[in-house]
Write a structure and sequence with these properties.
- The complex is a heterodimer of chains A (156) and B (119).
- With 156 residues, chain A is an alpha+beta fold.
- Chain A has one domain: Immunoglobulin-like (Sandwich), CATH 2.60.40.
- Helix content of chain A is 17%, strand content 37%.
- In chain A, the strands form two sheets. Chain A has a five-stranded mixed beta sheet with strand order 4-3-2-6-7, with helices on one face. A three-stranded antiparallel beta sheet of chain A has the order 5-1-8.
- The termini of chain A are far apart.
- Chain B is mainly α.
- Chain B has a domain of 43 residues.
- Chain B starts with a helix and ends with a strand.
- Classes of the chains: A alpha+beta (156), B mainly alpha (119).
- The interface between A and B is large, with 56 and 43 residues.
- Strand 5 of chain A pairs antiparallel with strand 1 of chain B, so a sheet runs across the interface.
């Protein structure tokens, strides 16, 4: 019995700090009805110095098209190891993409910025379509995109 | 001998039947250069100013980078939107969400699987 309690206490002690350091964040992007095929999107984060910090999501599974997500591609070289487990289908025109991720607390109010690069078949590539600082205050606020994304927001 | 003459006659008749219309069509056709001259002359006669049919004000657009799935040899023409995504990933592509944990890049807290929804 004591062993079970000890194990439970240990598990709780190990889990709680992890839960306190991360929170579920929902990223939502609604695409414009741009009249083309599904768009490839790269959602990634830059640090306070503007350097690439990591990827959050890539919509579109064929790596041969990743070079059209030009800023993201420049930063990553299209390395698919960067996006294993955070990749899904491309997003059709007029559709809304919602992703819920467990993000580190340290990303918020610390000068980090979330970016989205977009590309669609036979249409112009759109790097840095969205660039939004990650702040607690900015949560829930809708930001318009430049070419393919009607609006983007994140909720904590 | 009769057979040879019959074959010769038949082939001559065939050539005449096919060749004559083709020959007269070639004779009657106006060369492209003359068509162009005719159009210019008509325009000048009427005193009409030349009209620019297409003014692509996006000159240089074609120099912009574009995603072209036509280069894709893995699919036949006429494939539908997002068909590439039905593959469930490919050998060189990334592991789809849900199949492995998110990368350990310092952005993700606990390594929980992402939840995705497209409406």
């Amino acid at each position: 019995m004591r062993t079970i309690f000890a194990a439970l206490a240990l598990a709780t002690a190990l889990t709680l700090p992890g839960m306190a350091m991360a929170r579920p964040v929902t990223l939502a992007a609604t695409l414009k009805s741009y009249g083309g095929n599904g768009a490839y999107l790269a959602i990634y984060v830059t640090d306070p110095k503007g350097a690439y910090a990591g990827s959050l999501w890539v919509a579109g599974t064929k790596s041969k098209y990743y070079e059209h997500l030009s800023d993201w591609y420049r930063a990553t070289g299209g390395n698919t190891a960067e996006i294993n487990g955070i990749t899904g289908a491309s997003v059709g025109a007029g559709r809304r993409l919602e992703i819920t991720l467990d993000l580190a607390d340290a990303l918020f109010d610390a000068g980090y910025t979330v970016h989205i690069d977009a590309a669609a078949e036979d249409m112009r590539d759109s790097p840095n379509e969205i660039a939004v600082p990650l702040t607690a205050q900015g949560a829930g606020q809708s930001v318009p995109g430049r070419r393919y994304i009607a609006n983007f927001s994140y909720d904590l | 001998m009769k057979k040879t003459i019959a074959i010769l006659l038949a082939s001559t008749g065939l050539i005449a039947a096919i060749g004559l219309p083709a020959w007269s069509a070639i004779r009657g056709a106006v060369p492209f250069e003359r068509l162009h001259d005719k159009a210019s002359a008509t325009s000048h006669d009427a005193g009409a100013p030349p009209v620019l049919v297409s003014n692509d004000d996006s000159v240089g657009r074609d120099h912009e980078r574009r995603l072209r799935r036509g280069d894709d040899n893995d699919h036949d023409e006429g494939d539908e939107e997002d068909d590439d995504d039905d593959d469930g990933g490919n050998a060189s592509g990334p592991a789809p969400a849900g199949s492995v944990a998110p990368p350990n890049n310092g952005l993700f807290g606990t390594g929980a699987m992402p939840k995705v929804q497209v409406n």
